[in-house]
Structures are given as structure tokens and as C-alpha cells.
Amino acid sequence: MNSYSLKQLGLQTIVEEQYKQESLKIGRVATSANERYKILSPEGEFQATILGKIRFLAESARDLPCVGDWVLYQKMDGDSQAVIHQVLDRSSLLSRKAPGDKKEEQIMAANVDFVFLVNALNNDFNIRRMERYLYLVYESGALPIFVLTKKDLCDDVEDKIRAIQDIAPGTPVIAVDSLSGEGYEELYSFIKEGKTVSLIGSSGVGKSTVINRLFGKEMQKTKDIRASDHKGKHTTTHRELFVLPKGGVIIDTPGMREIQLWGTEESVHQAFDDIEALAAQCRFIDCKHETEPHCAVKDAIHKGKLDVERLESFRKLEREVRHLELKEKYGTHRASKMQWEEFRKKL
């Protein structure tokens, strides 16, 4: 039975400050499914359930353990089974709206330092989708890093890197070739003992291949991309935490077929801080960047400094998150009515 030191598992200061119960052991959740959890700890690996009190007091999915969580558990005598007594406070939480029409949050990973936003440098390259991923990371409290895979299939790598730098100034962008290993040394600079990295991306962009390359062996199964549309088939079916032999922790997540947002308007503005900076220069504080005179945003579009599609993407995400906030507070029917009234006032 494998055991890991707390440092190998990515121990953080916020965790050390909370761990004061000598009667309970501390571990980290590696997998989670139907309220069954695998815990990694200095004492070994354990299959665990949660204390009934945790389930009874849980008001939402956020109150239950998820992959990446630090938990206090009690080992059952003479067994590899355990019971989770407490979920410790998180330093970050990566989530999205659950797929479908239900008003539910889907928790993806906790206590993550860096999120690798994995995108393929082939026909599936999509800037608008990357903006949505960036929003999820800003909302989580982790730091984003763009990882561009399948470099060997792309003839205009630098152009695509510049396109991402335009939507996320200052955010690292690393292009990798998993066949030759090019770019992986840059990735390793973020993966070290005491740090946790999560990978998110659409189905088939190469997340599993990246993980296998980082480990130096097959940890996740992969499938070839389709020649017809250059898209791959995602093979990761569940979230899982891995401890790298050279130090560092990686959390893999299933590929996303749809990216539904969960969070606040503040994170939208953070993901589009270039538009926010321009808006601050508009003559009117409540400028909608449509017909108003002396609009810095429209002027930037006219001069070719801002892509009109980026402005439309900003407006779309802002509407989505606004609708989600209203729906959470008032319900679906009233939220739609209120948002329509807000739209009419702008006409």
C-alpha cells in the first residue's frame, strides 16, 4: 500500500494551520464517486465514506469532499477503510455549472495552485472557448497557464500564441510537442513538490498525453485524433489526483463537451480586463459601447486594437453569469423576465 508524505501530497500553509486534532489523521482525496473516496496519506491509501453529520449538514455540493480536498479521517481498525470526519478549508475551488438545464454547481477540483488550460494547435483551436476556460480559473482562485498541444501539427504556432496573449496579457503560454518533448521543461517549472496542478480542456485536446509525458509512462489511456476533423476522443472518465515521482501533484479531469459558467460578474471582468481598462476611458461611466460618443472601446475596435468578437464574447459571458445569479436568487422564470426588462431599458 503506497504512502506519501504530506509535502509530497502538496501540503499548504492553510492546511497546516487547521490540522490540530491529534485523534484524527490527515489525508488528501484522490478520487471521488458516489460519496466513496480514495484518500492518500502518510499512513497509506484508504477507501473512505463520509461521516453522516457531513452529509446531513451539507447544503450544496461545495460542502462535500472533492478531489484535491484535504480531509481529517479516522482509520477503521485492521482495515484499509476509513471515515472522513472533516473537510478542511480550501485555498481554491475549480467548478462550473453542471451540464444540462439543472441549476447545480459541478465541483471539479480543490486546493489547486495552477490550472493548465490545455488546447490543441490544430483545427480545434478556439479563442472564444479559451476565454471561457480563463473565466473558470479566475473564479477558482488558482493561476492560469495555457498549454498548447500538438505543436507538430501546426504551421503558425507563434500567431496562435500571440492570439492568446491578446486575450490574457501576462498569462504564460507554453506550446509543447509530446513526441519530441519540446516545451515540457517549461511545464516542469510549475510542477514541483508542494504544488498542485489541474488540467482542464475540451475532449481530445491531449491532456492524457501530457500527463503520460510528465510521468514518463502511461498513466492515462489515449486515443488517436480523427483525420476528418482533427478532434480526439476523450479517454479520462473521472477526476483523479496523481503524485509525480519527481515532486508535485496533478489532478486530471474529463474533457468538457460544454463549458457552462458558474460564478460572479467580477470574474468575467477579470478575464476581460483589457476591455475594463478601455471602458474606464469612456466619457460616460455607464457607457454600453454601442451608440455613445467618445467611447474608448469602440475607438479601439475602429483602430484594430480590439477584436469586435472579443467584445461580443465579453457581453455573452456577462449575460450568462448575470442570468445565473438571478436564477439562483429568484428562480428561472422570474430571472428571465428580469433580464428581459434590463435589456429593454438599454434600448
From TrEMBL:
Q: Which UniProt keywords apply?
A: Cytoplasm, GTP-binding, Hydrolase, Metal-binding, Nucleotide-binding, Ribosome biogenesis, RNA-binding, rRNA-binding, Zinc
A Pfam family that this protein carries is RsgA_GTPase
Q: Which GO terms describe its biological process?
A: ribosomal small subunit biogenesis
Binding sites annotated in the UniProt record for GTP: T149, K150, K151, D152, G201, S202, S203, G204, V205, G206, K207, S208, T209
Instruction: Tell me which residues make up the EngC GTPase domain.
Output: 110-257
GO function term, MF aspect, one: GTPase activity
Give me the comment on cofactor binding.
Binds 1 zinc ion per subunit.
Chain positions recorded as Zn(2+) binding sites: C282, C287, H289, C295
What PROSITE patterns does the database record attribute to this sequence? ENGC_GTPASE, G_CP
Q: Show where the CP-type G domain sits.
A: 101-259
Per UniProt, subcellular location reads as:
Cytoplasm
- Name the Enzyme Commission number(s) assigned to this protein: 3.6.1.-
InterPro entries for this protein: G_CP_dom, P-loop_NTPase, Ribosome_biogen_GTPase_RsgA, RsgA_GTPase_dom
Q: Which cofactor does it need?
A: Zn(2+)
| Record-level GO cellular component terms | cytoplasm
Indicate the quaternary assembly.
Monomer. Associates with 30S ribosomal subunit, binds 16S rRNA.
Family, per entry? Belongs to the TRAFAC class YlqF/YawG GTPase family. RsgA subfamily.
Q: What does this protein do?
A: One of several proteins that assist in the late maturation steps of the functional core of the 30S ribosomal subunit. Helps release RbfA from mature subunits. May play a role in the assembly of ribosomal proteins into the subunit. Circularly permuted GTPase that catalyzes slow GTP hydrolysis, GTPase activity is stimulated by the 30S ribosomal subunit.
Query: Under what name is this protein listed?
Result: Small ribosomal subunit biogenesis GTPase RsgA
